[in-house]
């Protein structure tokens, strides 16, 4: 797995809309924070562009992201926000120039499309972490973890055990992201390689029966059987029908994975939550789960 160069004070970082629209005032706090880290912030042409719910047309979002991928003076690129839309441009991105000097690509949620292409298809590490639109509501711990990931410091999280956890200690590469996105790429030309990996999943605003459907699909596609470990982040603002499904999102995940003998960690501090800690996808991690606590180190 290729690791982009860690950032240094004075480096340029770009912010672009790969999906939903963003206005400049919505990311002012993020720009200020990145500047306080000694970084020069370059706003893409899609910031403040509006095409229905998107940050510009597909062509405009593709051109803006491509320009930032190709610009060798920009050392990292943030997706301004998630939502929906990255899938509409992902197949037209060209990583040839990017691969001459790989840079950090940062985001979560809808940006899972980019993480998976880079991690599983091309072989480059990326960072699953807060996006500029969320900085204002992120915890200090989550933003500091992003800074540490970008500047090459060790990430270490110690958090409480969850009653559904399955104990164990493993080391392996971490991949994954938003469960809905991972589900949507099954059977496509985008590769989702999970064998001997630590898989991270999270989701937002889904019906519980749909969580069940997605976990069934992942299992039937043999994406859950041969993991080293499974990490479940925020399962946030889940919805139910008038007739209840009968299980929480965590219980649904547990039901579909309990027969496997790898460690499983629920309640990891990442996802659509304020304490969204950075994870370097494609990089080895140490994960230890016992009855009292969990430790994640990368």
Describe this structure in words.
The radius of gyration is 18 Å and the shape is globular. The strands form two sheets. The protein has a seven-stranded mixed β-sheet with strand order 6-13-12-7-8-9-10. It has seven helices and 13 strands. With 298 residues, the chain is α/β, with parallel strands linked by helices. 47% of the residues are buried.
Question: Can you give keywords for this protein?
Answer:
298 residues; alpha/beta; 7-stranded mixed beta sheet; 24% helix
Give a nutshell description of this structure:
By secondary structure, this protein is an alpha/beta fold.
Question: Which word captures the global form?
Answer: globular
Q: How would you classify the helix and strand content by structural class?
A: alpha/beta
Uncertain parts: none
Distance between the first and last residues' Cα:
15 Å
* Biggest β-sheet: strands ordered side by side in the sheet: 6-13-12-7-8-9-10
Task: Tell me how many strands there are.
Answer: 13
Number of helices in the DSSP assignment? 7
How much of the sequence lies in strands comes to 15-25%
List the helices and strands and how they pair.
Blueprint: E1 12-16, H1 28-36, E2 40-43, H2 58-70, E3 74-79, E4 104-107, H3 112-122, E5 126-128, H4 140-151, E6 156-160, E7 168-178, H5 179-184, E8 198-204, H6 208-220, E9 229-236, H7 249-257, E10 264-265, E11 279-281, E12 284-289, E13 293-297
Parallel strand pairs: 1-2, 1-3, 3-4, 4-5, 7-8, 8-9, 9-10
Antiparallel strand pairs: 5-11, 6-13, 7-12, 12-13
